[in-house]
Amino acid sequence: MMFKYVDERLLSTPPIALMQVKKEIDRMFSLVEENIGYSFESMENSEPRNGERVAENEAEIDFINSALTDYLIKLSAYVEPKDEKIIGGYFHVLNDLERIGDHAENLHEIGLEMMDKKIVFSETARQEIAEMFDNISRMFEISRNVFDTHNKDNLPSLASLEEGVDSQKKELIASHFARLAEGNCHVDVSPYFSSVVVGLERVADHLVNVGYSV
Length: 214
Known about the structure:
Elements: H1 14-45, H2 51-75, H3 81-116, H4 123-149, H5 155-182, H6 190-212
């Protein structure tokens, strides 16, 4: 694999190198967001698709994280003190995006396992997950905009959405156990439902971190 925008020769011109690093991170953002979308399709349709594309994206995400981290370490020896904070923020963004990529891969694998075991979520559970995913999608949009523009005006909205996702996680798990108690849901579904809800909540945490990294 290779960088699309970054080149070792740019190390001698740090301002240009930093601009190109930002483009690579933005590309990583796209790959991560795409994989989260595929993972949600797995949950929604109980029929995982795009498994090969998810694996390819994840491999590229891991490459960008590792190679760009090494590149930033080299670049830090050339930048002015005022740019050291930018590099520090980029390190954090790379880590959070890589973790979101891991969660996306895990969610897709949950969909595969459910398909193999012929386990499906109830219509109510699917609707609850869809509502949670809608908030995650809005967080992706805001977090990416803040990273791209460094406009901090939307950070309160990002934090508010994250708090909402935290509340959703608690409410969804509580409602799931209520369905179990009422006999409206099978116990085999429990670990999968809980894993999906917790995974999405952790994605929200990382998206907030990305936004506040600026």
